[in-house]
Every structure is written in structure tokens, then in C-alpha cells.
Amino acid sequence: MRRAALATAVLACTALGATLLPSAAQAADTPLRDLAAAKGVYVGNAVAGGKLSGNAQYSGVAGTQFNSLTPENAMKWGSVEPTRGSFNWAEADQIVAFAQAHNQQVRGHTLVWHSQNPSWLTNGGFGATELRGILQQHIATEVGRYQGKIYAWDVLNELFNEDGTYRSSPWYGTLGVGFVADSLTWAHQADPAAKLYINDYNVEGLGAKSDALYNLVRSLKAQGAPIDGVGFQAHFILGQLPSTLQANLQRFADLGVDVAITELDVRMQTPATDAKLAQQGSDYATVVKACLAVTRCRGITAWDVSDADSWVPSVFSGYGAATLYDEGYQPKPAYRAVATALGGTVSPSPSTSASTSPTPTTSPSPTATATASPTAGTSSPPAGNRCTAAYSVPNQWNTGFSGSVTVSCPAGASLSSWHLDWDFTAGQQLTQAWSGVCTQSGKHVSCANATWNGVVGAGGSVTLGFNGTWAGSNPAPVVTLS
Length: 482
Ligand code: XIL
Prior knowledge:
The chain has 482 residues and is of the alpha/beta class. 32% of the residues lie in helices and 24% in strands.
């Protein structure tokens, strides 16, 4: 197994000022997000704000392997409006900021659901007029707050019973089926560019529930309601994927909507065995291949970063081990199966001991430093009291690498903006940058701060992240900070 994975985790953590942990958070192969992007899809995960800021292994995996994030709970009604008219956006804002800092899109989840609502709403006994007003206000407020920052919203979640009848909920019971089109219309008014989805589970294959959803989407399209996509949660049981998955995705796509896998996990009865983990890899790969085979399938979101984070054990008694990473944040066979299905060339599976031992951090990291006079401050600082830029490539694989440049200022110096220049002398090519804006012309790379991280305070630092390609050698350039 390749061993250079620490770096991307460190990169993400450094940008957040979090503690660095000396263990690998993911395989050192091409990140899933790059493989997915090359196939024209995204790959995402569900995240919690507390873990993004408090668990460096978690944030390292979330920030480097995925290019889409879904707040696991932070945007649900009970989270954002626990008391009527009193909003709490802290965790949702944090996740959106993390996503922006890591060049990730966000799937908003979810606006209208029967579950995880605040008690003032479920027990309010509201009549139709008042309830309709409450719903409109909620959608306008939440979608409006994140206008321009959300790629797609799960506007409506889990509308149907297994037999295809509408699930009883305050919405359906009081407002009738009109709440579906109304919700889409209000969301569209608040953010015309966001893709608006209906999301559900046990609709991945053909069947009564899937038929009900299909008929709803067809009728919404016929009415001209703003429906852009259908989300298939895909909470699967090991070895029990519907054989009609791809055909079902395709029939929805043929209605003229996007489709996406929105909450993928594959649970098994614990304990996990090698045979079960191999089957799980095959199941994950089946889902990825089905999505890739359907042109309008936009991407795949896994539900929870690691087995330590998964919602499964607390909800499905006796089941677990449902995600791509084990409880120590080591990639499982399912991770490698997803990478392979996305066209990646992956390292062999680690042995059991390798997957449970801390990974040594012995990879040599090319580094280079530069200095710059601060542009802010009342007097010129003495020599040696300058802001510096440190270039680092801690994660490198066969044809690609992830790098970073950390701009640091000592006490007594600061920057109000920063600019970095360097020459790639061995043909390296930048493919992606985050937490900064970069262009490459020939061998010359020029990067400026993002709008939000130009200021580097005294004693502070910011980190620019990037991916690139290389061949032959990958020497560290000399970076100029200005
Ligand atoms: C789950 C979360 O993962 C848990 O943390 C929470 O306690 C309950 O909700 N379908 C959905 C998701 O649409 O919002 C659910 O998420 C899982 C099932």
C-alpha cells in the first residue's frame, strides 16, 4: 500500500487550524474526487460540523476525497429552527464554509420531511392557511440564506409509503398533495440556480414505491413545476441490491430530470468478515457503474465518512460496517472498489495489520520557502520578521500529486492580501486549486488569495491547496510571495 496519504489530510486540517494527527486518513491513490471528476460526476459524503472541526482524520478524508458534501443533519428543520422564528445556522454555515474552502459543492438536505421536525411544528395543530405560510417562510428563509452556495436541494424527502401511497405527515394531512409543487416553486423563487430534487429510499429498483415517485415526477413535469432531479438514497443491505437499479435510474432520467445517488451505504450483519467486505466492495461498485451508465446521473453521495460515524448501528440492530472507511479511517475494500469503478488504478489491499496500525510518515516531502515584506503594519519589520511561504508536496501518486503552500506571518507582521508565483521546471501541470485562485501559463504558476483568506494576521497562517500532474520527476519550485 502506498504510504504518502498523510499530506492531504494535513493540508485540509492546516487550513482550518486543526490539530495534525500522525496517521494516514486515506489511501495514497488518486483521490476519489479526481477520479469522479474525470468521469463527469461528483462523489460526496454526509458530514457533521462538530467532526469537521474536532476530528482531523474525519476532516482530512472529507476534505480531500470528496468534492460534494451533504450536511447530515445541520440543515434539517429541527436543527435550523428549533424554536419558531429563531434560527440557528451555525453548523450549516460551518459546513458550507468548509466546502467552499475545499472547492466542494453542497447538497442541501432537506427542507420538507416528516421527520426531525421541531416539536413546535409537529405539535402546533396549525390549520391549512397558517401551516402553508409556515412552510413557505421556512423554505424562503433557508434557501434564501444559502442562495448561490447550494448545488442541489433535497426539497422534499421520503414522500411515499412502501405501497406507493402518500406517507402521512403534517404536510400531506393538512395541505394535501399541493404542498409538493408549492414547495418546489418557493425553493425555485429563493434560488433559481439550485437544482431541486425529491429524495427517497426503497425507490432504487422498479416497484410500487418507485412507480409512485415516477408518476409524481411525470405529473410535476407536465404541470411545469420546477423539478430538476430525483435522489435515490440507496441505503442498501449487503448483497441485496435491486437488479433493476440502472434501468430504474434510466427511466427517471428519460422523464427529463437529473438523477443522483444521495445517501449510499451498504450495511452488513456485524462482525465484518473478509468475505462480507469483498461483497460490499462489489455492491458499491455496482452502484457506481449504474450511475456512470446513465448520462443524467450527476453523482454519488456516500452516507457517513467512516464506520465510526455511520448512522447504521444505532438504527439497524446488529448491522454496521456500512461505509467506505473502517473505524480507524483506513480505506476498506469498498473504497478500492469505488476507485476502480471510477477508473482509478489502486494499490493492493493492505494486510489486516497494516489497516489497523498507525501508518509511518516517512515520505520525503519536497519543500521550499520564500519571504515577503508585509503590506500592513505601521513600520517596516526588521529582517527576519517577514511572512513566508512554504511549498510542500506530501501526497504523490503515479501521475498526480496534492500540494500546498502555507503562508505564515510571525508575530509583528501581517498581510492584507497575498500572491504566490513559481515555475514548474519539470513539466508539472496544475489541475485544481482551492483556498486560492491559480492560473498556469506554460511553466509559470500564479496564485492569489481567495476573497475570504487574503488577511494573514500576525502569528497566523493560511494554506493554499492544489492538485497537479507530473511525470518523471516532481521537484519543489522556488516560490515567491508578494
Ligand atoms: C440520518 C442521520 O444520518 C442521523 O444522524 C440522524 O440521527 C437521522 O437521520 N434518510 C435521510 C437522512 O434522508 O436524513 C437520514 O439521516 C438517513 C435516512
